[in-house]
Every structure is written in C-alpha cells, then in structure tokens.
Amino acid sequence: MATSTAQLLRLWWRRGGRDRVLATSGFAVLVLTLFLTFGSLFHAGPEPAFDGLSEGPVLVDLTLVHDAEKKGAVCLDGSPPGYYLLRGFGSGADRWVVHLEGGGWCDSVKSCSLRARSHLGSSRYFESHIPFEGILNNHPSLNPDFYNWNKVKVRYCDGASMTGNVEDEFQNNTKLFFRGKRVWEAVMRDLLSRGLANAKQALLTGCSAGGLATFIHCDNFRALLPKQTTVKCLPDAGFFIDANDISGKRTLRSFYHDVVHLQDLANDLSKDCISKTEPAQCFFPQEFIKYIRTPLFILNPAYDAWQVQHVLAPSTSDPQRRWQRCRLNIHNCDSKLLEALQGFRTTMLNALSEFQKNRDGGMFINSCFTHCQTHSNLTWHSPTSPRINNRTIAETVGDWYFDRREAKEIDCPYPCNPTCYHLDLSAIWP
Ligand SMILES: *[C@@H]1O[C@H](CO)[C@@H](O)[C@H](O)[C@H]1NC(C)=O
Ligand SMILES: *[C@@H]1O[C@H](CO)[C@@H](O)[C@H](O)[C@H]1NC(C)=O
Ligand SMILES: *[C@@H]1O[C@H](CO)[C@@H](O)[C@H](O)[C@H]1NC(C)=O
C-alpha cells in the first residue's frame, strides 16, 4: 500500500514536470501522504482507541456530508465532501480544533479534471480512516494543549482552498464543479450541529492550500460561533508569498491569476482587499492579513520547501538545472544559491513586518527546509522537533492561544538552528 502510493506520487510528480498544476499539488500531496502512510505502517487494524492515552496515533473514521449534495456543495467531480472527527474528552469536550487539508490548486479545465479523478477532487478516493497526528494527536506528551479537544480533519476536494461558487456544472463541456465555498459552508453547518456550535474555545488550522484556506476563512469561522467563544486561527505553511523567482518572473502570481479567474473566486476573497487591488492578488495572504480581525498565529518555515520548488526556483525558470539538487535538499545548496534562499527569507520577513506588530498575533518562522509542521509529531512536538528559544511549535502555539506569554518567534538564518528537521526530497526524486 505504501509502495503503490509512493509510485503514484512519483508518477504525478513526473507528469507535473510538464503540467505545473499537478506539480503544484504533487508536493503537498506527497508531504501529507508521507505522514499518512508512515503513520499507517504502525497500525494494522482499524479499531480506534478513544481513551486518549494509548501509544501511537488513533485511526479516525471518515464521515461524508451527504446532505451537502442537495445544496450543491460538492467536490470537483460532484461527490459529497467529508471529514474525520475524533471526539474530545474531559475538559476538552467543549473545545474544537478544525484542520483543513492542503494539496495545491488547479488552474485549467484540464488540470481540474485530472484532479477530479483523485482524492483531491473526489470523495470516492478518500481513505475510510486516517491516523491523527501532530496537532490532532490525542496524547498529552505529543500534543500538550489540544490533546483532549474535539478534532476534525476536513478533506480538501475543490481546487481553490475552499473558495469558489460557480453555478454551472459544466466547464467547457466538461462536468466539473467549482464549489469550494459551498463545501466550506456545508461542512461547517454539519460540524456546528455536532457540537461545534457550543464550543467554548476553537482553533481553525490547516496546512499548505489548507493554510491559505485558514487565512481566507478565519473571520468566517469566527462569525459562525457565539461571541463568548474564544476563536483563533493557525495557518500552517499557508503564507505563500508574491516573490520573484530566480529568473525574475512571478510564477506563482500568474498561476494564482489563472486559478482565481478559472474558478471565479473574486466574490469569496477579502472584500477589503478586492476593493483595493485586483482579485488575483487577494489570494496572497500578505495582501489581506491586515483585514483579518480574528487572532492569527502564522507558522511557516522561512525556506518553505514547497515555495522553494514552485515560487523561488520552479524548474521552468531553471533551464540549466543549476537548482536541481539544491531545491530538493538545502544541504546541497552552494553559497550562491544560499544567497538566493536568504533573499527569499528576507522577502518573507518583509511581508510579515506589519503583522509582527499585531498585538493578538503569534508567529513561528523557523529556518528549516520543510513545509507543513503541525501534522506530524516530528515537527509539532517531540524531544527532537524544531525549537526556537527552546520552545517547540506546539508550546509556542499554546503560549499564544492561552495568552501565557508573547509568542512571536523568528529564527536566525540557516544554518544556525540545530533543531531543524530539514526535508530531503532527493531520496524521493533522485
Ligand atoms: C512520531 O511520528 C513518527 C512518524 O509518524 C512515528 O514513527 C513515531 O512512532 C511517532 N512517535 C510517537 C511517540 O508516537
Ligand atoms: C474553453 O475552450 C476554448 C476553446 O477551446 C478555450 O479557448 C478556452 O480557454 C477554454 N476555457 C477554459 C476555461 O478552459
Ligand atoms: C530546554 O527545554 C527543556 C524542556 O523542554 C529543558 O529540559 C532544557 O533544560 C532546556 N534547555 C535550555 C538550554 O534551556
């Protein structure tokens, strides 16, 4: 099972060389799936242990939101959306973490159609149960502040970070639904009826494209819950920046432009932002975080491995393949390429400089070559996970959520932090 998933991913990635859309989703899928399959190696049976104290991550069952179909809240292929819910216990029984899955975006009828035939576009391919790790783990030693909360992982099956609301069921004669916003609403409605509506405390989080969805929906999530509920948002690896690539092009900007126009997202993005600049720019968090009123914690590695692949050094901008080894493993970067990486970090920090003054905000911008960091114990909270000022990501997020202390951490530049967990993608794409 693990092998066939890896093979499939490799296939996707290779195709991605020719089709940037698949390339875009490929990496996030990979990171996610690595964690999922890795976790599942340790669990042969599907029987969950709900006492919250057993070793290893529990497996949680899929729930499909069937009545969503009536409202046209469907995945790209028209199938119903879904999520996994693990009930909280003890003092966590009325507290909720909602995590939004990531997995890139699609920007053409062709790439969205391909996606509609995968787990990123159709619930027909969702796993019937998945392990809950990192911020979703139910063991206090691996998840000190949120272990006993209700925890939800929402599957991502539209192509635009849970935005989009196109009535038409056909795009250029191809049956394809752009209904991310309706999916968001249907899933939230379902969760509210299962107890989220009575939450005392809630945290919306998500990784990669789900991190971007967390930025986009943060205030919407706040608005769904009672005034007295504490609501905060933790986008993980969702701070995609509008930066020049190594050839001076804005590769991600033109990609976002195509996504936003294809799926007609203008109505779903920040109104304050749309009134000031063109819609496609409002898909970049740096353009709209200043309008978000709900407290935010921005977690992002400064050398975000996905962004190095697709924003800074996309292969289309590297015909001589000078970045070939470096973009897969930061230890392979010579001093010249490292300089470009440091420039990327500076661009990211500049884009965050205004946010840094936000009194309710938190941040953890570590100098690691990685992507999502909330959904594995290796990065979230363990004796060997990355730290800044000797605090793990889980501890820093907890400090911020519960107002224990100021939690705005910016790491010194690579290679200063010995606690980093750097990805080595060359093992996967030699
Ligand atoms: C942490 O995660 C890794 C990878 O999923 C797993 O091998 C390990 O058993 C986990 N550690 C604990 C204590 O659950
Ligand atoms: C629809 O098809 C036409 C003709 O092939 C093409 O010009 C247009 O770009 C397509 N539209 C989309 C959204 O793919
Ligand atoms: C770092 O924190 C750990 C507990 O998480 C503690 O045992 C250790 O002494 C701390 N190290 C330093 C240098 O403060």
UniProtKB/TrEMBL annotation:
<feature type="transmembrane region" description="Helical">
    <location>
        <begin position="21"/>
        <end position="42"/>
    </location>
</feature>
<keyword id="KW-0472">Membrane</keyword>
<keyword id="KW-1133">Transmembrane helix</keyword>
<dbReference type="InterPro" id="IPR004963">
    <property type="entry name" value="PAE/NOTUM"/>
</dbReference>
<comment type="similarity">
    <text>Belongs to the pectinacetylesterase family.</text>
</comment>
<keyword id="KW-0378">Hydrolase</keyword>
<keyword id="KW-0812">Transmembrane</keyword>
<dbReference type="Pfam" id="PF03283">
    <property type="entry name" value="PAE"/>
</dbReference>
<dbReference type="GO" id="GO:0016787">
    <property type="term" value="F:hydrolase activity"/>
</dbReference>
<comment type="function">
    <text>Hydrolyzes acetyl esters in homogalacturonan regions of pectin. In type I primary cell wall, galacturonic acid residues of pectin can be acetylated at the O-2 and O-3 positions. Decreasing the degree of acetylation of pectin gels in vitro alters their physical properties.</text>
</comment>
<keyword id="KW-0964">Secreted</keyword>
<keyword id="KW-0961">Cell wall biogenesis/degradation</keyword>
<protein>
    <recommendedName>
        <fullName>Pectin acetylesterase</fullName>
        <ecNumber>3.1.1.-</ecNumber>
    </recommendedName>
</protein>
<keyword id="KW-0134">Cell wall</keyword>
<dbReference type="GO" id="GO:0071555">
    <property type="term" value="P:cell wall organization"/>
</dbReference>
